[in-house]
Design a protein that fits this description.
378 residues; alpha/beta; DHBP synthase; Rossmann fold; four-stranded parallel β-sheet
Length: 378
C-alpha cells in the first residue's frame, strides 16, 4: 500500500518543548494515594491530547489517545518516527477493554479469538481490520490495526482511568534501542513528552509478538515472548514473515506491521554479532575483539563466558541457558555499553529456540547495514 499523502515527510505536528514529569508508581501498591495521583495525572494528560510513557511487560511505550489523530502525530514528532511505520494500540482489561476493542476493529477471525483467549492480557499484538474510528496516522494508511492488551498493572490502570485506547510504540527515538526503564525513556525523550510513569524495569525486555490471523497460514510479522510454537499450538499453522534484506531509506510503501523494515533497536555503537556454540563462544568473542584494536570495545557477556576478554568492557548479560534473562537484559546491556563510550559492541547470538527467535530478530535488525556478517557463522 502506498504511503498516505504528505506522510513521506513525516507528521505535520511539530514537537513541543515541554517539562517532562516523572511520576513514580509502585506496580505492587497501586492503591496508595501517591500512585493514584500519579495515574490520575497521566490519564488526564492522555485525555487532553498529551504524551505519556508507561511500562508494559515488554518495553516502555509512548502513549497518546488512539482516537485523537493530532495526539498520535505528536508521537511521531517526539520519536522522529517516519509516518510509514504503523503503531500498536493498547486497550484496557475486562469489559472496558472489550468495548475499546469493538470501537477499533470490525471483525476478529476465529484464530484471533483463540489467541486472545490464550494470551491476553499479554505480549501478543493482533493485526485486525480497522474501524472508521482509527485514523491513517495509527495504521500508516493500511486497513489493519495492531491491538494488544498489555499484562502490566500500571498500563492497565492507566488505560482504565484514561478511558481511551492508547496508541503506543516504544518510548525511544526512532531506530534506537528500546527502553526497559524510565531512565532509558528520559535519555531519549526528556523535554519532548509530557510525562513518564516510572514503574520500574520491564519483565520480558523485547517487544510483543505481532501476528496477522486473517491469513492462512497465520503470518508472524515480529517474533516475541509469545513464541511461534505457542501460536501454532493454539491457532494452527503459522509462518514467520521474511523481510527484504535491504530497503531504501525512505520506502515507497507503508510497512505492513510495526517492527519490520530498515534498522531498528540499534545502539549508537556499531553492533557486531558473533555466533558459535557455547563451548567456543569465549574464544570467538576474544578473536573478534582483537580485530578492532583501535576501538573502545564492549561485550555482552553471558554468565557462562568466564574471565576477561582482553581490551574489552564486559557487561554481564545473563545466563545463556536461560534465554528469558537474555531477552530481559538485552536492551539494558546495549544502552549500558553505549553509556560507557563503547564504539563497537560484540554480542553473541543465541539459538532460535523459543524467545531466542525474538532476540535474534532484534539483534539482526540492530546490526544490519546491508553487508554485516556474523563472525563464526550466521
Amino acid at each position: 500500500m502506498s504511503i498516505p499523502p504528505g506522510a513521506e515527510s513525516g507528521p505535520r505536528v511539530e514537537n513541543r518543548d515541554v517539562k517532562t514529569l516523572r511520576l513514580a508508581v509502585d506496580p505492587l501498591h497501586l492503591e496508595g494515594a501517591g500512585a493514584q495521583e500519579a495515574l490520575r495525572q497521566a490519564a488526564e494528560i492522555l485525555r487532553g491530547g498529551g504524551l505519556v510513557a508507561f511500562p508494559t511487560e515488554t518495553v516502555y511505550g509512548l502513549g497518546a489517545s488512539a482516537l485523537d489523530p493530532t495526539a498520535v502525530e505528536r508521537i511521531f514528532a517526539a520519536k522522529q518516527r517516519p509516518a510509514w511505520d504503523p503503531v500498536i494500540v493498547h486497550i484496557a482489561g475486562g469489559e472496558q477493554g472489550r468495548n475499546m476493542l469493538a470501537s477499533l476493529v470490525t471483525a476478529i477471525p476465529e484464530a484471533g479469538q483463540r489467541l486472545m483467549t490464550a494470551f491476553w492480557p499479554g505480549p501478543l499484538t493482533l493485526l485486525l481490520p480497522r474501524s472508521p474510528a482509527v485514523s491513517d496516522a495509527v495504521t500508516a494508511g493500511r486497513p489493519l490495526v495492531g491491538v494488544r492488551m498489555p499484562n502490566h498493572p500500571v498500563a492497565l490502570a492507566l488505560m482504565r482511568l484514561a478511558g481511551v485506547p492508547v496508541a503506543a510504540p516504544s518510548a525511544n527515538t526512532f531506530g534506537h534501542t528500546s527502553p526497559t526503564t524510565a531512565d532509558h525513556v528520559l535519555d531519549d525523550l526528556d523535554g519532548r513528552i509530557d510525562a513518564v510513569l516510572d514503574g520500574g524495569p520491564t519483565m520480558h525486555g523485547v517487544e510483543s509478538t505481532v501476528v496477522d490471523t486473517s491469513q492462512s497460514p497465520i503470518l508472524i510479522y515480529r517474533p516475541g515472548a509469545v513464541t511461534v510454537h505457542q501460536i501454532r499450538e493454539i491457532a494452527g499453522p503459522a509462518e514467520v514473515y521474511h523481510e527484504v534484506p535491504v530497503l531504501a531509506k525512505t520506502p515507497q510503501s507503508s510497512m505492513p506491521s510495526p517492527g519490520v523494515g530498515l534498522r531498528h533497536y540499534a545502539p549508537s555503537a556499531r553492533l557486531i554479532l558473533v555466533e558459535a556454540p557455547l563451548a567456543e563462544l569465549r574464544k570467538k568473542l576474544a578473536d573478534a575483539a582483537s580485530q578492532w584494536p583501535k576501538e573502545r570495545m564492549g561485550v555482552l557477556a553471558p554468565a557462562e563466558v568466564a574471565g576477561p576478554i582482553p581490551g574489552a568492557i564486559l557487561w554481564p548479560w545473563g545466563r545463556w541457558s536461560v534465554p528469558d534473562e537474555l531477552a530481559r537484559e538485552l536492551y539494558a546491556g546495549l544502552r549500558a555499553l553505549d553509556a560507557q563510550g563503547c564504539t563497537v559492541i560484540l554480542c553473541p547470538v543465541p539459538p532460535a529456540d523459543g524467545i531466542g527467535a525474538a532476540i535474534r530478530d532484534r539483534l539482526l535488525k540492530a546490526s544490519h547495514n546491508g553487508e554485516e556478517e556474523m563472525p563464526g557463522g550466521g
